[in-house]
Amino acid sequence: MKSCKISWSLVVILSVIVAVFSYKFTVGEVKPSEDGRLAVELTKDERNALLLEMRTWLQSTQAVLNAVSDRNFEEVSRVARISGMSAEADTPASLFRKLPAAMKALGFDTRKKFDEIADDAIKLRDPEHTIKQLSNTMNNCIACHSAYRFTEAFHSPFPAKNGFVASAHIRVKTGLQTNLSNRIE
Ligand code: HEC
User: Fold this and answer.
1) Which of 24, 36, 49, 116 has the lowest tally of Cβ within 10 angstroms?
2) Which pLDDT score is estimated for 176?
3) Is residue 90 a contact partner of residue 55, using CB atoms and an 8 Å limit?
4) 180 C-alpha vs ligand 1 centroid, how far in Å?
5) Which tens digits make up the pLDDT trace of 24-53?
């Protein structure tokens, strides 16, 4: 009887742990941001990795347009593929836990759309089709940018909030203004 009780407690504890983890996984590390979007809190490296990914998407977008205007469908396919699903392996695994599920879905869908551009360019060789696909893909860029932003999670090196602010002021006063004091303004 006693061991039965213990195993029920274990079930309850494990369920709570699973529930908390799945909630975290769905919601991600987000906070409301003063510009009305949701801020996804990342480390500096994670944010840099995602922004690099973003700049690659922008480059693919321009390169697809350039290649399609030359009717060079091999090149359309090549440059679209750079932002396709196969590049997902470059994304650090720790990030997936922090991104909200809806954001991840939009990100994967964007990669899938770049892959479709790459496939169809070779199959159909139809410039209007490629341009239409790219325009649809860019609706994902717009949707995600209007909903989310990335912020660097900032951990104060000082225990009390006031202590940190005071120390930042001292830095300003002594002319040693650093990024730290810029950040809290
Ligand atoms: C799943 C969400 C998502 C999608 C889809 C998305 N972005 Fe972004 N992108 C972001 C976020 C979040 C930022 C950071 C914005 C901020 O913090 O203000 C960003 C930033 C950027 C930046 C700035 C990079 C830098 O170095 O500062 C560029 C360029 C960019 N995105 C291009 C694109 C393009 C082009 C597409 C579509 C092909 C796209 N993004 C689709 C989420 C997304």
Assistant:
1) 36
2) 37
3) no
4) 25
5) 556 678 899 999 999 999 999 999 999 999
Q: Measure 79 CA to ligand 1 centroid, in angstroms.
A: 18
> What gap in Å lies between CA 78 and CA 65, rounded to an integer?
12
Instruction: Report how many domains make up the chain.
Output: 2
Q: How far is CA 35 from CA 42, 103, 147, 180, in A?
A: 18, 18, 10, 21
What is the domain extent for residue 89? 25-153
**91 shares its domain with 167:** no
Q: What pLDDT, on the 0 to 100 scale, is given for residue 158?
A: 62
Say if residue 89 is in the same domain as residue 49: yes
Give the number of the atom of ligand 1 that is nearest the alpha carbon of residue 140: 5
Binding pocket residue ranges, ligand 1, CB within 6 Å: 51, 54-55, 57-58, 61, 103, 106-107, 110, 137-138, 140-141, 144-145, 148-150
- Which of 57-66, 88-97, 102-111, 169-178 is predicted least confidently? 169-178
CA dihedral (78, 83, 86, 91) positive or negative: positive
What is the pLDDT at residue 27?
Answer: 67
Question: Is there a single domain that holds both residue 29 and residue 64?
Answer: yes
Q: Which of 81, 84, 77 is nearest to 125 (CA)?
A: 77
| pLDDT, tens only, 45-88 | 999 999 999 999 999 999 999 999 999 999 999 999 999 999 88
Domain co-membership, 179 together with 123: no
Is 98 within a domain? yes
**41 and 91 in one domain?**
yes
